[in-house]
Amino acid sequence: MIDNYNRNITYMRVSVTELCNLRCRYCMPEEGIAKKAHEDMMTAEETIMAVKAAARLGIRKIRVTGGEPLVKRGIVKLCGAISHIPGIEEVCMTTNGTLLPRFAKELKAAGVSRLNISLDTLDEEKYRHITRMGELKDALAGLEAAEQAGFCETKINCVLMGGFNDDEIPRFAELTRNRPIEVRFIELMPIGGGIGFDKAQFVSCETVLEKVPELESLGREDGVARLYAFPEAAGRVGLIRPVSCEFCEGCNKIRLTADGKIKPCLHSAQEISLKGMQEDEMEEALRRAILDKPEKREALDAESPSKAGRDMNQIGG
Ligand code: SAM
Ligand code: SF4
After folding, report:
1. How far, in Å, CA of 258 to CA of 15, rounded?
2. How far is it, in rounded angstroms, from Cα 22 to Cα 29?
3. Which one of 130, 146, 210, 219 is separated from 46 by 20 to 30 angstroms, measured CA to CA?
């Protein structure tokens, strides 16, 4: 469906839970979050109805996310149901990867076509620090499990944090020389836990090109990522600049939270509830949400944090 600013909205991120088995410092509070009442969250049936309604409006790609989608009970069945909805051409998932050794094969069989795995450091101690409770070996085992299950074009999401992992940029980029993966460097956003970060930690993606000057532009984009690669490399590097660069003009997505709110824009407090509705009512609410999608986000930097009003685990990145 075309919105009021001539953008074709074809992509919906569907958060299936706010809960997570990690506590990344830029995302969630240390103590986790209070579990909301079961009746306030979308049921699997409601999520499927919402995707059916969205598909009728022209949504073609779904990204299942969270919180951590793999802690959601029945996640494989839900992905399978979504992948069979007429009109849905692609189902992807963003995950921290730690539970992929258990789920990768089943997800592939259920119709999930591609995975984004979040990994901000290749150092065990730093991984423990940034996730507050995770083990690097579990995330690496997840990456391995994805490969073994036959997932192709896997992407690694690496949030850039000055003074934390900018020294690892060359090492991450090197992963793409011999493996057909995309390492995506993402600018830290002042949203959720990211709001408490020091100004100096918000480094721009330009740092990547300064630290790895051999990277050559591929002259094209993949969604919001501008693509680069080493000459003759098997993989590529993507730069995602949500802070230093505004990509609102080409934004083709909406988000559905685990408690049933449509967020037409990540950085706006505007939310339209689908909870408790029948499918045709959902379709109408989704239509209104798409037409209400703002033209652009407001200012976003360390001094002007996101107006989203929720942490990232409660929205779905
Ligand atoms: N738990 C899954 C994971 O970590 O991949 C999916 C949900 S997580 C909220 C989705 C993505 O949002 C992750 O890649 C994470 O790094 C990113 N994210 C969370 N908070 C962020 C922030 N403040 N700035 C930039 N990216 C953030
Ligand atoms: Fe959990 Fe993902 Fe947020 Fe980390 S970024 S706390 S893994 S939801």
Report:
1. 5
2. 10
3. 146
CA atoms within 13 A on the CB side of 33: 22
The class that CATH gives domain 11-314 is alpha beta
Cα separation of 33 and 112, whole Å?
Answer: 28
Is the CB of residue 98 below 6 angstroms from any atom belonging to ligand 1? no
The torsion angles phi and psi of 103, rounded to 5 degrees, stand at -110, -15
Range name among 24-38, 63-77, 126-140, 204-218 with the lowest pLDDT average: 24-38
Q: Which of 18, 94, 117 to probe ligand 1 with, by most ligand atoms within 8 A of CB?
A: 94
Does ligand 1 come within 6 angstroms of the Cβ of 305? Answer: no
Q: Is the pLDDT of residue 33 over 90?
A: no
Indicate which atom in ligand 2 lies nearest the CA of residue 66.
Answer: 8
- The domain segmentation of the chain, as residue ranges, is 11-314
**Which amino acid, residue 72?**
K
Q: What's the pLDDT tens digit per position in 235-253?
A: 999 999 999 887 899 999 9
For residue 257, give Cα distances in angstroms to 18, 160, 167, 195, 242: 8, 25, 34, 20, 20
Give, in order, the Cα–Cα distances in Å from 70 to each of 7, 100, 106, 247. Answer: 32, 8, 11, 29
Residue 298 has pLDDT above 90, yes or no: no
Mean pLDDT of all residues in 119-148: 98
- Write down the pLDDT at residue 196: 86
Among residues of the chain, what percentage have pLDDT more than 70? 100
Instruction: Judge whether residue 203 has pLDDT over 90.
Output: yes
Give residue ranges with CB within 6 A of ligand 2. 20, 22-24, 27-28, 66-68, 96, 118, 312-313
Supply angle C-alpha 260, 27, 263, rounded to 5.
30
